[in-house]
Design goal:
The structure is a homodimer of 340-residue chains. Chain A is built from eleven helices and eleven strands. In chain A, helix 1 crosses helix 10 and helix 6 crosses helix 7. At the A-B interface, helix 8 and helix 9 of A face helix 8 and helix 9 of B.
């Protein structure tokens, strides 16, 4: 019998809601029959969007939620007060085992807080990290933590390394993934206090393929599969990646339009160029999972379009089928036994 | 009477030494007569390089130094032991007032340590930051600190903001430069402990144009002129900037060569494209000054070519003519008086 993965999708979250989430859900169920999408949000609004499409109706269900958490709301207050919001209703379904995963392009803060308060941490996990895939010259790397827990300690970074390694091996399919710690030099005497505390712990960690420090310069080359860092650093890396790529691409487009000759050249070169640059487009790789929770929570970019939502849903299926949470639990029990 | 700026140049430092430093020195003195370059290093080696060029001989002098500090040497030991190295000899000239500035493409660690131990800090400056200019869509921004002092405290970041502001206004010529603090969100409740400690201090700082938090995504757009951050973060930003730019440009070149049609297009578009990308080439903007010392110390990239060395020498002239150190001293005295 086929396992069906049940994904709650926040139909009200993100800049393009409800149209992008609804279309993403439709695209996902039209592509695969091992998915059921539960669309959480305002029923009439969702119904109106759904009516535009043809799809296997038994694979999409609406879960009514009347409230919407806005981007600017203080996360803790929003999660506590808006009990009938799409985020709270959706996460409760995961908590109660009625769904396997929750996907949202809504408020990052509310998703991080809700993940911890509602879905809850796996026993033994100290801090659940946010871990997006970032494009590199060789494929993708997992950046962990990119924003969930600022001022983390060395023991947290070790868990990030372990969970990230499991994720890359089982969800992305990289055998024996190379794990590296973000540092400002290759030598062990380089780094801040956190890095100096973490390096020896990672070297002792027998169950991961730790390859040492990585300088940020080498991340885009794909020199490691799992890039471990504290959340402030990770967030700076992720956002600079986005900002610098889009600035450079716009500068290049300007350059291509600057002379008559270059305009003709650009017209000829553009199709091939677009194909290459697509490989550097983060939206191809789905959303960022918040790892270490009792269920999967995936944060997609606020500006997500249907394709990113669809890919995030696919990501949940692999996560579920590979039983990543089961594997994380085993890991944590093993590590704790070793400590005793 | 014209002021002549005396710059000691480390002829032995960097991947392209001695040819790049010597050529950079020659190019600098051929372009301007208000510069004297003191080439520190092995006399015969320098002499041989110099013999290749024609230049006003009274503007270049060789300062013999028999030893060379290698990139891999532990900096503190190297500075203490190699008394006759180009770095130690050169920095002593600045310390003794026989030169105004020291420029090197050699070991960053040795330059940072030598700057503090030999040239020494301006009284009242707690930590001298390394502050390179980085290219943006609108021009350049100063990234301060990008690697000199990891684990800095809020009071250090305030001094970075003040010194960076002075530098951008007087050396780069940006009136009333916008100063921003690197953060992971625009709201004041975002950030790590250091950022939360620093934000209110910067807001109170009446003598700078503090515009609040900046997310790394907005740095390449040129949304601030002075980008203040702790050294670990700054180093990650600087190196990712370099790494991502070069990876994207190589990916784009690959894309342009991928089909016959795109190859023809590329040939037509390349001259215009190269011109645009040159604006994003950090080597155009000289080296990174180590601010707050009794004299100017400039670290240029290890892979510096003659053009970067020449531009770093020009940078020293502006720094000297604008009396940046005099202005930093005034600032510090003012701030200390305010505190009393």
């Amino acid at each position: 019998m086929q396992t069906v993965t049940r994904v709650v999708l926040d139909a009200m979250g993100g800049d393009n809601a409800p149209s992008a989430p609804v279309q993403g859900a439709v695209d996902a169920v039209n592509a695969r029959n091992d998915i059921k999408v539960l669309l959480a949000g305002q029923e009439d609004v969702i119904r109106e969007e759904l009516n535009k499409y043809t799809y296997p109706e038994e694979q999409i269900e609406i879960v009514p939620a009347t409230e919407v958490i806005e981007m600017a709301e203080p996360p803790v207050v929003a999660i506590r007060k808006k009990k009938d919001s799409s985020i709270v209703v959706g996460m409760n379904l995961v908590k109660n085992g009625e769904a396997d995963a929750f996907v949202s392009a809504g408020s990052s803060g509310a998703i991080l807080v809700g993940g911890q308060l509602i879905v809850g941490r796996i026993k033994g996990i100290k801090r659940p990290p946010l871990a997006p895939l970032i494009p590199t010259k060789k494929g993708v790397s997992l950046l962990i933590d990119c924003g969930a827990n600022v001022d983390a300690r060395a023991e947290h970074l070790v868990q990030f390394a372990q969970m990230g390694s499991l994720y890359m091996e089982n969800v992305v399919g990289i055998k024996n993934p190379r794990v590296a710690l973000v540092n400002i030099g290759a030598e062990d005497e380089k780094g801040n206090a956190l890095v100096k505390d973490t390096l020896p712990l990672l070297r002792e960690c027998g169950d991961i393929n730790f390859v040492g420090s990585i300088e940020s310069r080498d991340i885009p080359q794909g020199d490691a599969d799992v890039i471990v860092c504290e959340a402030f650093t990770g967030n700076v890396i992720l956002k600079l990646y986005e900002g610098l790529s889009s600035t450079l691409i716009s500068v290049i487009k300007q350059g291509l339009k600057s002379t008559f000759r270059s305009k003709i050249g650009a017209a000829l070169a553009l199709p091939a160029l677009k194909k290459t640059l697509k490989a550097f487009d983060a939206s191809e790789y789905g959303g960022a999972p918040l790892l270490g929770l009792n269920g999967l929570v995936v944060k997609t970019h606020g500006s997500s379009k249907a394709v990113e939502i669809r890919n995030s849903i696919f990501q949940c299926v692999t996560f579920n089928q590979q039983d990543i949470n089961g594997k994380i639990k085993e890991y944590i029990i093993d590590s704790q036994n070793e400590e005793e």
